[in-house]
Design brief:
single chain, 159 residues, alpha/beta, five-stranded parallel beta sheet, 5 helices
Amino acid sequence: MEVVKGTVCVTGGTGFIPSWLIKRLLEEGYFVRTTVRPNPGNKRDLSFLTNIVDLNDPDRFNTAIEGSKGVFHIATPVDYEYKESEEIITEREISGTLCILKACLKSETVKRVVYTSSASTVVHSGQDSDMVDESFWSDVDFFREKETPSFLSYSIFKT
């Protein structure tokens, strides 16, 4: 019988990176819970994920996080239809992240939270280097001038 290493939660389970992280965590012996954004038209095939909790209501993060020893917060809202302002999406991201962190505190089992960022946070810093660190922040004004509207708020928020 395989020994389970514990439960972890991965937010944004239908995304490319989270889905691969989930696969790897399962292979390493973790029990994984994940969150998905609402999909009213059921246009995506979610069959590759198991034990999914749809967390449309931020108060329900408690359910996914409760009993977890770790949380990988990867999810970020993206407005693919260009309907929301940068401010609205940023507020939603901040609110969602705070809900997740509060649920982690409430659980009393979470020992570590991994908040992921994006390459977009450092690629437009004006500095040329093969290695980057926290001193290589992207120029937010660059995003406002060059980014497509759907990824503008994503790139700015991650930065």
